Amino acid sequence: MTGTLVKLSNATLRDLPEGVEGPTYDRTALTPGIVHIGLGNFHRGHQAWYLHRLMQQGLALDWAIVGAGVRPFDEVQRLKMAAQDYLTTLIELDPAGSSAEVVGSMIDYVPIVEGNGPLIDRMTDPAIRIVALTVTEGGYYIDPVTKGFDAQHPDIVHDAANPATPRTAFGAMVAALRLRRDAGTGPFTGQSCDNLQGNGAILRQTVVSLARMSDPALADWIDANCTFPNAMVDCIVPATGPNELALVQRLGIDDAVPVTHENFRQWVIEDAFCAGRPDWDKAGATFSNDVHAYETMKIRILNGGHQVISNAGEILGVESIAGCMAHPLIGRLFHKLASEEIVPHVHAVPGMAPADYVDLIHKRFSNPLIVDTTRRVAFDGSSRHTGFLLPTLREALAAGTPYEGLALVEALWARMCAGTREDGSDIAPNDPFWSDLNAAALAAKETPQVWLNQRQIYGELADHAGFAGAFAESLQRIWRDGAEAALRAYLD
User: pTM for the complete prediction?
Assistant: First the structure.
């Protein structure tokens, strides 16, 4: 693209390059209905897109999104988005043909202030009927083994002692709900959009448990009046970097925060909204009373599959997920392990058998246009392995089905956390608990059981002789002969 770039804003929507569709609705007529905390790429490429699609039909104009965050660096994102009237260019990347559109369903972004006063005020507004979150799997203050609420975390201790000036998104929700209860405004729906099994139930646990630490009567009111629907969300949305910024400029648009995504979206939602909701099903979402089956399939095969391949990719210096799938061993690892060790513990959903879902994910992971970095996918393994892989391992051990590949993947993670690739280059810290993981990984080189003795991750799995033996054998082979030799031993 040559010539002057179109600076993204309300004023320039009529000037978008040919082929780039913008909002057909009057954005000045939109009114807010949702506060969304955690304005990363996934939200803007998924939930915001569904709402935008409704608005393109002339629907849900009173459900516009107000963005929010609770971390200081969220302010950088807010300023970038404010400068372009909260518009986002979505670029779909698919080998069969790519396309772009500008999404306009977000109309504001709450300033990030210590104590979260502006966020609390916004959630207190009666117009806000849904508070949604994408705060990552590890952001809900849950114990990775027991799945119970972590009341001892310093952030939680602070919010319980200072309920009017909280640090966390959940503390801000509790503070706003207290004000709504006292004013007679009524409850809002808390909607998790993170990759967690039973994400709505986990959000309820976090909010109600935190409220109970400072105001038991409020906790009871929240538990009785607010709803927290479970949901499964799915779309591969890479982080934005120099390549994505160059791509949107080649389209002819000056957008500081574009989003690239694959040609696939799925959103399955429990229909439990105490204060109303948009008709997302008219934009392709599914309302279902059996969200658990959908989320189990997706979390175990897609999210678990990401962990299967990303740790091996990091060790071997493969930079992208598509590159991992093109690798002669890593791609085979995904398909064999998913088919033989995960599928036996996943039930079919309407229109999709587990084995067919494996083939679908294999194709999606292999899309060469989606530059999803191995490092991004491997991030926060302490949450992702415990949430995505270890539940399958527990069921496999109980059922007597194969688990050697799962043991290999845990060994690959342990090797990755040693902090070096096989070419000698460093792997930068990539987990909130990296220092602990790194120390255990280095000790496990000589004594593999040290890794499994991280009870906060493995719990009783550390005591299972068969799993511990398979893990030790794989880890020792990786250190002795290399990751590729360990992969061949499993595959052959």
Answer: 0.89
